Amino acid sequence: MPPRHGKSRLVGEAAIPWFLEEFPERHVILISYNGDKAEEWGRKVRDTIRSRRVLFSVNVREDMSRVDRFETDKGSEAHFLGINGGVTGKGGHLVIIDDYIKDITEALSPAFRERQWMQFLANLDTRLEPGATVIIVATRWHSDDLIGRVTQRMDDWEVISLPAIALENDPLGRKPGEPLFPERYDLKRLEQIRRARAGTYLWEAMYQQQPFDDAMGLTDPEWFQILDRLSMAEEAELQKVRAWDLAATSAGGDWTVGGLLGKHTPSSGCYIMNVKRKQLSPADVEKMVRTTAEADGRDVTILIEQEPGSSGKALVEHYQRNVLPDFHVVPIATGAVPKLSRAQPFLAASVQHHRPGVIATPYSG
After folding, report:
1. Residue 148, CB-side half-sphere exposure with 13 Å CA sphere
2. Three-point CA angle 34, 40, 46, nearest 5°
3. For 359, which DSSP code?
4. Matching InterPro entries, A to Z (predicted)?
5. Are residue 150 and residue 11 in the same domain, yes or no?
6. Cα–Cα distances in Å, from 224 out to 89, 172, 259, 351, 360?
7. Residue 119 and residue 243 share a domain
8. pLDDT, tens only, 31-75
């Protein structure tokens, strides 16, 4: 289901009290992306049972009523855990995994997705009581997320996909184009959300529940306008930078890539003017960067990606002191954020406001 459409409230605050009433002596585990979020739902479930006595014959025991774990007077247990929290020794007849990914940085990290998958197999799957039901409810972020892996690698899973705007064969019987929750998000509001995410695959993944590989969905040729050249007047109004992602492998391995970008200040248009991309030894990389800087001119700011740690800082300082001492060199610290995560905001903003231009100069490969 899309964000902010009530999925967590449905499966947490509503479904768990119903289950505990209908199936006394059976146990529930709810898992969310962190312990605080899980405990928030534990508090709501506990308070729902206590405050709506006309609906429930089951009640929460006064002596076992923590927000992360409570027991009922019929013998059921309910546990509310973060996805990294241990479930050792706890068994569940109903296990709900709710919103297992916190943000796009986690979603685009292969290491995070693999770690989460291993946690699912090792810590959760072994805690199921015989005949248990597992419900995974989430907004889709990536084709390789937990729902993607479960449906591709395991049998006996039923998928109920509810896009924000109905497609053909909608599970709820909506006609194509009808919104999922019009009282909260009508078509006008959904269209505003879709336009704001132009240039990203986030709309299709998060709102339409149709994720695809991020690298494939990152760009579309139609987002760009191919230009022969800019006029001298237009080029004079550009603020230019040359951004480098340095590598040091002469045969195979990573590529050294440097793009010359220009921003047209009056219109906020962005232009890709030239790209250098080669596999070179460290010495040859330095020569290429220096030669390129001289060709670009001293009015072009040079950006160099700075990898985490002291070695990344030392590399940038080497270029500032020894390779490009007479140029304006600025380090760009990226931390552990994947390149795709860093590219998404730029593409979204650029495509929404101004189609980026690609100057058809000879490619420097």
Report:
1. 18
2. 135
3. E
4. P-loop_NTPase (IPR027417)
5. yes
6. 55, 38, 16, 8, 12
7. no
8. 888 888 899 999 999 999 999 999 999 999 999 999 999 999 999
